[in-house]
Design a protein that fits this description.
Blueprint lengths: L3 H16 E3 L9 H12 L1 H4 L9 E8 L8 E2 L11 E2 L4 E8 L4 E7 L10 H5 L9 E5 L5 E2 L5 H8 L4 H20 L2 E11 L4 E3 L12 E9 L4 E7 L12 E2 L2 H11 L6 E6 L5 E3 L7 H21 L3 E2 L3 E7 L8 E3 L2 E3 L1 H8 L5 E7 L2 E5 L3 E2 L4 H5 L8 E5 L8 E2 L13 H5 L7 H17 L2
Parallel strand pairs: 4-13, 6-7, 12-14, 21-23, 22-24
Antiparallel strand pairs: 1-19, 2-5, 2-9, 3-8, 5-6, 9-11, 9-16, 10-15, 11-12, 17-20, 18-19, 20-21
Length: about 450
């Protein structure tokens, strides 16, 4: 017979086995998910040899306000504890740009939200258009002062307040309206690409600039319609965190201010920002927080974008391709110590499920790739350097409608002398994902270089 002490020890041991398990550190090359994901990209390779050249691409754009009429929590900081917004500093939008070459079509959609809702019914959104699910390219501005209430699970409640189905319905309805209006407005357009150095306004928040790197570039698509209207799609890597958790008013943060400044010029009628590789990247300003910080970075970036936009060239394009590629990942691996994780089923229970895929949108020789995560700016350079034909222009976005946490440079995964928020708290799928995503995006680039 076991005594009470033995029974207690065995019960505790059994409980720990139910809750925790060892971290899987086996190499990528030995994992089935790695090969399955690469094979999913290979499966579209043969399809990519088909002609995607159609007529001259037509482009239309539109936006809809996301400001709710009812009390709604803010999203962005757990320290807000689910607080509802108290006022409006500036508007927040869903913005849509539709492309059509008479053979295929695609829509670039950016939302002034923390992330694109993983539970967004994308098929419902596309029902009113002759679009397939592949045709929808999603990203977000990642402002930390926009509406919440659309994220499920415990993590969603912490970062986005109490879940409310009405908020998700609002986002869906406004996205549909923006897409339909953009589709009706499309007309033949010239399209150009630009890349502007803007290192003064971004820094590495994970390990600092002395040992870490950052993505210093603004990347731009310029659109000129035949009727003389101009639009800009652009990305930048600095997090939209100029406002801290004490901010209780709705705001698009610096991307909202920056797009507003651009749209007030005579040269730009419509401006839409999609978060770039914002993982590990923070805004670099002299001001610490708030409106002064927003004014400083938005004004500085505005000057660079405005000057660059005016001298950028543009030309008619005919090639249009959009794809969604399902990927697989290592099991959920939320660490409680260096080599122990919470069992995946518990993590899923707390955080919820999310679709896992990578999207890309090819417009002429301009390749946009959207990832399901906070994608680190430290990974941008090696991916961009993999372009071998010197023809493709690359723009990487985060928050494509799935969300798997942070994807960071692998060498920081076990470092404890850094800010571990990204590598511990928000690293949800174990080691080697930096190398994994570099390989995935490189392979997408490879298949686009052959056409």
């Amino acid at each position: 017979m076991f005594n009470k002490y033995t029974v207690t020890i065995l019960s505790l041991f059994s409980f720990l086995l139910i809750i925790f398990k060892p971290l899987d550190r086996s190499p990528l090359e030995g994992k089935r998910y790695y090969y399955n994901s690469l094979e999913n990209i290979d499966e579209i390779r043969s399809d990519m040899t088909n002609s995607y050249n159609g007529d001259t691409i037509k482009v239309g754009w539109s936006k809809e306000s996301l400001i709710p009429k009812e009390p709604t929590p803010l999203a962005g900081y757990g320290a807000r504890k689910g607080a509802y917004y108290e006022g409006i500093n500036d508007s927040i939008f869903v913005k849509a740009v539709v492309f059509d070459n008479n053979q295929s079509n695609a829509a670039y959609v950016s939302m002034d939200l923390l992330i694109v809702p993983p539970n967004l019914d994308q098929n419902k959104i596309l029902n009113s258009l002759s679009f397939k699910i592949d045709n929808l390219y999603l990203t977000a501005s990642h402002t930390h002062s926009s509406i919440g209430g659309y994220l499920t699970g415990l993590a969603g409640k912490i970062f986005g307040g109490e879940y409310d189905e009405k908020v998700l319905e609002l986002i869906s309805r406004k996205t549909i309206d923006a897409l339909e209006n953009a589709y009706r407005k499309r007309e033949k357009s010239k399209i150009g690409y630009g890349k502007i150095y803007a290192a003064d306004y971004v820094t590495n928040r994970l390990v600092g600039d002395s040992i870490g790197t950052y993505d210093p570039f603004i990347r731009i698509l310029k659109i000129n319609t035949e009727s003389g209207k101009n639009s800009i799609i652009f990305s930048y890597a600095a997090h939209a965190t100029c406002y801290g958790h004490k901010q209780k008013n709705l705001s698009g943060d610096y991307p909202g201010k920056l797009t507003s400044l651009l749209e007030k010029t005579n040269e730009i009628d419509f401006a839409v920002y999609g978060a770039g590789a914002v993982g590990s990247m923070s805004p670099r300003t002299r001001s610490n927080e708030g409106i002064k910080r927003i004014q400083e970075i938005s004004t500085g970036l505005f000057e660079k974008i405005y000057d660059g936009f005016r001298i950028m060239g543009a030309k008619y394009e005919t090639k249009l391709i959009s794809k969604k590629i399902d990927i697989e990942l290592r099991e959920e691996s939320y660490r409680v110590s260096s080599n122990v994780i919470i069992r995946p089923w518990i993590f899923k229970l707390l955080v919820g499920k999310s679709p896992k895929y990578i999207s890309f949108l090819r417009i002429g020789d301009n390749l946009l790739i959207s990832t399901p995560c906070d994608f680190s700016g430290e990974l941008s350079s090696p991916i961009e350097e993999s372009i071998s034909n010197n023809k493709l222009n690359l723009m990487i976005n985060s928050f494509n409608g799935g969300y798997i946490g942070y994807i960071t440079k692998d060498e920081w995964y076990d470092r404890l002398d850094i800010n571990t928020y990204e590598t511990y708290t928000m690293n949800w799928h174990g080691p080697y994902n930096g190398a994994f995503f570099i390989r995935l995006l490189n392979k997408i680039i490879e298949i686009n270089e052959i056409i």
